[in-house]
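Limitations
The structure tokens in this dataset are predictions for the assembled complex, not deposited experimental models. Users should treat interface geometry with appropriate caution, especially where small molecules or nucleic acid strands are included. An illustrative entry is reproduced here so readers can see what is and is not provided.
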Amino acid sequence: MIVDTSTLSCPLPIMDHDTVQLAHGSGGSLSASLIEKLFLPRFDNAMLNQLEDQAVMELPACRLAFSTDSFVVDPIFFPGGDIGDLAINGTANDVCMSGAVPLYVSAAFIIEEGFAMESLHRILLSMEQAGKQAGVTVVTGDTKVVNKGSCDKIFITTTGLGSVPDGVMISAGGIQPGDKIILSGTIADHGMAVMTSRENLSFQTRIQSDTAALNGLVEKMIKTTTEIHAMRDPTRGGLATTLNEFASTSNVGIKLIEGNIPISPDVKGACEILGIDPLNVANEGKLVAAVPPDKVDAVLDAMRKHPLGRQAAIIGEAVTDHKGMVAGETLLGVSRIVDMPVGEQLPRIC
Amino acid sequence: MIVDTSTLSCPLPIMDHDTVQLAHGSGGSLSASLIEKLFLPRFDNAMLNQLEDQAVMELPACRLAFSTDSFVVDPIFFPGGDIGDLAINGTANDVCMSGAVPLYVSAAFIIEEGFAMESLHRILLSMEQAGKQAGVTVVTGDTKVVNKGSCDKIFITTTGLGSVPDGVMISAGGIQPGDKIILSGTIADHGMAVMTSRENLSFQTRIQSDTAALNGLVEKMIKTTTEIHAMRDPTRGGLATTLNEFASTSNVGIKLIEGNIPISPDVKGACEILGIDPLNVANEGKLVAAVPPDKVDAVLDAMRKHPLGRQAAIIGEAVTDHKGMVAGETLLGVSRIVDMPVGEQLPRIC
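Predicted assembly:
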């Protein structure tokens, strides 16, 4: 959801400057004032508030999932979200794809000198909201400011930590022939939302990013069975990339029933007009999982009861043929190889 | 130490391109080839090699230290180091300032389109070497490529995880009046090395960055006593900032004996010529600690036996006067308030 500042209950605090200055990244007193006025109120928690250079957390003996992502999306505000919620959701998702419960997040900001305080505030509010929804706490961070022209507005790197429940062992290499491939919902929403909102495309649609934290959905799936053989969120490179990674890492073939892949009419239309294969377009609130055939109905049932899994569908299966490759069957029954995209269709999509 | 490619045993592998292309950040097959050829050989370990979107680590019940930093230093290669070893050492240091043993690191790269593969390779070699020296393993990462002009060459965000030994409880808020303030060595080396190497300064010196991982030194100190009340590495904002943070967080005054602060003649000279207070200049391989008076001799002894602590000195003490403030006593016996620097003297110093 877009954070519309006009409806925000929390206005920008009175700041020393309207835009971010180099001095705000100096580590000196202006840095301290920026952190205190803008960052701490958003991520208010005992560990962060100590303002140590590191957070110290007590954890029981466990397996930990640890993941990092830099977010460089352009534009930073797009239909359905912004760089802030994207940075929280994206990292929460990478952590929970191992089956882990995401708990803690660090956030490192690289900000261009002259960036509007109002925009920074909007982004932080959006991170706050996303963190609450995902149930993760921002416990440590860093802020650097670079000279005007040395970065484009703002980049955010988040790193997540989560605890993997006992008995859960999910990896892209665990797929067995016969496993069904489940997709949690429509594809290509995020990528097309960002692309159609770029200034150079006059093109107007109702397409919204699907940015969302998937850990609630994953929890429901794991409660149903711990026998989920592989799980991944198809972000950059899209569904085609994730399925190819599955096929090569697990050394199986993947047969894809293209007609079963959910896609919204608006996204489909935009892809057709722009000549883009939606299989290659980024998603930010979807997951693909490989599940043994005797568990697939129960998992699908559980997913469809969750708001983020209502359109979950079986989109294919793992086979012993064409190992390491993904073969798509079109609606007309024609088979084609679904390759990983070589290059970059949509730079700075996340 | 500078990684001089002419002496490297490891030449650049044969790559598809001489410079980084947008497609190398697409998540598609060119991304996969970059990771496989350039990144994996440097950070070779079982967790990273699985190429999951997250690393899963087994840890015993413990307190974990968690810290993140973005590195945007300019120039990326400077006397004594580069952005690569800086990114490893800086995060290892933030983790170990809590007394923790740094174990795992994530690394997220934001690279400008057109960046030379040769330079990326040098940086990765330097990270590899620094990781080995610090004893930390890079277990997960991310690579984004942005359009030419959207970032300045390369930014690296590292996030570290470490395990805090039982009984160790170090924080900037733990200082008691009477505690001695120890500094591990000379100040301002890193900041002045970077500054004097910038193109716009014709100024040539032998000043080298002090970039180094301090966890070995910290281990020696903690073996001597767990009663270290506060510890921090004085990076951005320099020693003045760290001491002011100590004073305000612990609500004590700090009396600084300026004549006891180690500084190399070259650095002192450069600071004088440029009119810069070395107390405000960044360090990347130094620590400041507050230690009770009955432990200070043992801690100093232990430090001086370690290569990174040979010049360790008592530079002041915590007092009940002028709470929250740092008062420096000059060689002439004059007292002055040592403030946190307000602004940015040296942007992009780390």
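Some entries come with short summary sentences. For this one: The mean pLDDT of chain A is 91.
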